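TICKET: design request
STATUS: open
ATTACHED STRUCTURE:
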């Protein structure tokens, strides 16, 4: 009889096996460390503190290099050692020539997570959600996990429990702090360290835009850049949105969310086959989205963070689709009230609905000629983009200072542990000496008697 294990069950079993193996290894290490500490009086533990990698960045995809590159550059500028670990064999980081920053490909998928589960580091920075939820487990030898988002919008538009088990989260707006505190309270989680760090990739895009050459004359270009999942544009409208856009006569660029090619592979293959590239339509999968954002005149999206990159950097108009966002798979379902993303979209853009999709050309023309969105964009910029132009410096300062704080705390704990060990030894030898004296007195008494 053949046994079949579905992929979900297989993944769960794999995770359980990793957890059991990790727990066993950890217990053995703890036991071994305690024996060494007792035998050496703490000397070995003190040496182990120097074996940890000071700073580690982990990226599960090359598309997040724009988030991390400014930080890596800042570490290099300060001549601070940093290890950048990537799960993409073609990550642009691997092409960089650094002296103090080491960039390494550690394998894809579970291979990468397996290595991370036993990593030794003082501080780990990552934009990957799901720490200690799925395959990626907290290593017992990583002292502090810091999360940095890769979107300039609500921090709760992550799949459930995405950032619950990080020690700290770097944010870009006060409203995100309020959202995490609400999650912690409702889930009974310990308070994480939350601080504003800015948006590294937006800082870089702003500099690039300032130095970019003027765009040549071109046909009106519409960029369709949806998110992924059932609540996205393609999840609701499918190919009908492309049909409507083709009728406008404008040049159309379709840039699906990279995750769509993994989680919605069949849908993407179907759409790309039904709507092949032509003079008036192109599909864009560039890792770097700067040029495609720059050369388009208007953006159509849903709840994707690209809307805010587009509006905040390029000051261009946006149209957002009414997709009846389903909160249930996301952390957002735990949050009361409206999300910042949607209240802000109402101010900076116009809504696309089933009622006006057939008149989408008229909608596009109206939005492009309406300059009322500029003030709303400026307000959004203030609300969600802290430390404009300085995020890499702010984040690097934080990481360096946090490590110093962690090491100082570890040093004090080490001194306390060593002092306790000395006191225990003193008590032991004092007790032994007392017993020996009592035994000698007893022997003398017996002799006299």
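STATUS: resolved
RESOLUTION: sequence designed for all positions
ATTACHED SEQUENCE:
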């Amino acid at each position: 009889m053949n046994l079949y294990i579905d992929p979900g069950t297989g993944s769960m079993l794999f995770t359980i096996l990793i957890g059991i193996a990790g727990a066993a290894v950890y217990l053995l290490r703890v036991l071994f460390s305690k024996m060494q500490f007792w035998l050496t009086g703490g000397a070995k533990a003190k040496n182990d503190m120097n074996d940890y990698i000071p700073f580690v960045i982990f990226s599960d995809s090359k598309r997040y290099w724009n988030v991390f590159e400014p930080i890596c550059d800042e570490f290099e500028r300060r001549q601070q050692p940093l290890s950048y670990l990537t799960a993409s064999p073609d990550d642009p980081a691997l092409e960089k020539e650094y002296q103090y920053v080491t960039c390494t490909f550690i394998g894809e998928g579970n291979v990468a997570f397996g290595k991370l589960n036993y990593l030794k580091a003082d501080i780990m920075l990552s934009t990957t959600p799901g720490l200690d939820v799925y395959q990626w487990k907290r290593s017992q030898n990583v002292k502090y996990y810091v999360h940095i988002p890769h979107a300039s919008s609500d921090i709760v538009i992550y799949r459930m429990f995405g950032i619950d088990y990080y020690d700290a989260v770097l944010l870009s707006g006060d409203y995100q702090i309020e959202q995490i505190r609400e999650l912690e309270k409702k889930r009974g989680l310990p308070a994480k360290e939350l601080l504003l760090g800015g948006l590294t990739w937006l800082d870089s895009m702003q500099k690039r835009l300032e130095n970019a050459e003027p765009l040549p004359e071109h046909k009106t270009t519409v960029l369709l850049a949806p998110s992924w999942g059932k609540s996205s544009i393609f999840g609701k409208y499918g190919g009908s949105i492309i049909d409507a856009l083709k009728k406008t006569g404008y040049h159309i660029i379709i840039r699906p969310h990279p995750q769509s090619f993994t989680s919605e592979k069949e849908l993407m293959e179907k759409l790309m086959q039904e709507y092949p590239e032509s003079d008036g339509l192109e599909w864009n999968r560039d890792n770097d989205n700067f040029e495609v954002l720059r050369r388009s005149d208007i953006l159509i999206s849903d709840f994707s963070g690209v809307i805010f990159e587009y509006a905040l950097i390029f000051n261009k108009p946006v149209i957002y689709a009414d997709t009846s966002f389903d909160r249930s798979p996301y952390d957002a379902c735990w949050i009361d009230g409206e999300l910042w993303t949607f209240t802000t979209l109402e101010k900076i853009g116009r809504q696309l609905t089933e009622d006006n999709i057939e008149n989408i050309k008229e909608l596009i023309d109206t939005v492009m000629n309406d300059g009322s969105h500029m003030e709303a964009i400026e307000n959004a910029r203030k609300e969600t983009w802290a430390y404009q132009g300085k995020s890499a410096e702010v984040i690097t300062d934080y990481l360096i200072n946090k490590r110093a704080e962690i090491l100082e705390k570890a040093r004090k704990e080490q001194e306390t542990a060593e002092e306790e060990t000395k006191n225990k030894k003193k008590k032991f030898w004092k007790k032994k000496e007392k017993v020996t004296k009592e035994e000698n007195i007893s022997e003398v008494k017996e002799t006299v008697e």
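CLOSING REMARK: The chain has two domains: 48-199+391-404, 214-384. DSSP finds 16 helices and 13 strands in the chain.
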